[in-house]
C-alpha cells in the first residue's frame, strides 16, 4: 500500500493522479497530526489544572469540608517480599480528586524493602489499593465518608489483598478530615 492506495491500483495510476493522491494523503496526515497534538495539549492542560487545584487545596487556598484528609496506617503486618512483616507507620495528606502512592517500609530495614500501595480520594470516598495511578479503583478497599472523620475515624483489622497484589493483616487505618488552614 502506498499513500493509502493498494499497490496494484498505484501501479496503474498516472503521474498526475499519483501527485494528487500524495497531496491528499499528506493533507490527511497533517490534519490527523494536528488533531493528535491538539488532544495532547488539551489533556496536558487538564492535568495541569488538576495539579494546580490539588496544590491549592494542600496550601489551604481552597477549602471545603472534606477537601483534605489525613490518612494514617499503623499496626498489623503487610506482605513484603514473601512474608508478612511489621512495617513503619505512615501518615499522609490527600486532597479531593488526588491519587498518590505510599511506600510501606519494613520496620527497621532500609528504603528498598517495602511494598507500595496507591490511594485515591474523590467524592468523599477514600479508596485504598487502587493500583498504579488509580487504574484499578474498582477492586480497591473503599472507606466511605462518615461524620466521625471530623474527629479521626479508626478502622481496625483492615485487610487488603482480596483482588490485589498487596496483602495485609490487622492494619489500623485512620481517616481524619483536616480543618480549615488559616494562612
TrEMBL record:
<protein>
    <submittedName>
        <fullName>Uncharacterized protein</fullName>
    </submittedName>
</protein>
